[in-house]
Amino acid sequence: MTVNRLMSQKVRELYEQFPYPLRDPQEEKDRLLMPPLDTLSRVNHYCFGGTKVIDASFRALVAGGGTGDAMIWLAEQLRDVGGSVTYLEPSEASTRVARARAEARGLENVTYVNATISEFAASKPDRFDYINCAGVLHHLEDPQEGLRDLASVLKPDGAMGVMVYGEHGRLAVTEWRKMIEPLLNNKDLSEQLAMTRKLLGNLPEDNMLLKMGGGPGFIRGLLENDPEIVDLLLHPVECAYDVHGVYDFAASADLHVAAFTGFFGFGGTGKAHYAIGNLVRDPALLRELSAMPLRDQQAFCERYSGAMPLHAFYLTRSDRAQAAEMLPDGDLAPYFFVKPTPSFFDDLVALAGQPVLIEDGSGNAVDLTGGPDLARLLAVFDGKNTVADLVRILRDDILDKQPIDMNSIAINTLGAVWALFHKFDWMLASRPEGWQKAESERQLTVRKQ
């Protein structure tokens, strides 16, 4: 048996013994996990320029589905329109958990395939509109081959949502693995786990793992979750990427990075961490950094923050990176992906001329001083008015008292408003009456500073 096949067998055995992540199908009756990477409003905006028709013909693949987070969320979104999800996972134990979760939710639009990525690609299936592959490729002996296999089953205009480990923000785990490697010989996985639990239970207060996880609560959570310990600290195969490595990884399969996005937690607005303007405040330095190519800016952000343990991003065959952040095309309609509270516009009017803070309840906020015209403009971002309509409304109805031609000023003003509200995905764009499902977790509020 070759070394690669031996390692593949070890990985499969790991997930048979410890299905990951730890999930209880009974909890499906009380909550729905919604991984931000696979929210189809984001996928449509960043990968398809807001033009994708998501209906019964839409086919999604979850490659390395684990216990089912991405599969459940995609299947729930596609349930009412008749779209389908293929769940691909070599671990039978993980598949049992994922299937039980889907059954608990009454999901019938999922096909289950127990195979590896390479085995599935070799079967020449019908191609997919969207492929999720989160936390998987970095556990393959040849990640580039795995990405090429996925590209081979992607439609020509399809897209992928991928997550891989981050090199710099994961340094604590890398150092832990170097430390513990000599102690793993001649121990089976259960023995390795028992030893690791002892080490974690007496961790020195200056250990890098504590800093990476945000404190003692992170370690307490690990000690309550054996699959998390195994996946994080005892996995037999893993690699990590910096930002430039992500771009090179994508290029190895003739793909482009369309956008970085969020992966963890509430709202999942991780893309803001890759924006120079959110980290550097000095105007002169910001101008210098902003003149660099986008990928160099993002690489600077990764090293400057030092706290990105992973990278979540969208891949497409065409290069959409710049277009995704610019003011959308004239025939697209911006809409509030994060809905304002019922009193938002009235509050904005009441506080006109005063410094205010607009926030979404998850730590994301912008400060500005707006007038009543801002509230009037934002109120017509309804998902029906296109960018061309908004320019006309701003020019003729809001700025109509100005003595000069306001067309270019209207476009620039609209672009500034879009940039502000797109910064944390508060606004996205699609065709009018297209896929405009709003997020349900966050709401926009405004208050006086």
UniProtKB/TrEMBL annotation:
<dbReference type="InterPro" id="IPR029063">
    <property type="entry name" value="SAM-dependent_MTases_sf"/>
</dbReference>
<dbReference type="InterPro" id="IPR053173">
    <property type="entry name" value="SAM-binding_MTase"/>
</dbReference>
<protein>
    <recommendedName>
        <fullName>Methyltransferase type 12 domain-containing protein</fullName>
    </recommendedName>
</protein>
<dbReference type="Pfam" id="PF08242">
    <property type="entry name" value="Methyltransf_12"/>
</dbReference>
<feature type="domain" description="Methyltransferase type 12">
    <location>
        <begin position="63"/>
        <end position="159"/>
    </location>
</feature>
<dbReference type="InterPro" id="IPR013217">
    <property type="entry name" value="Methyltransf_12"/>
</dbReference>
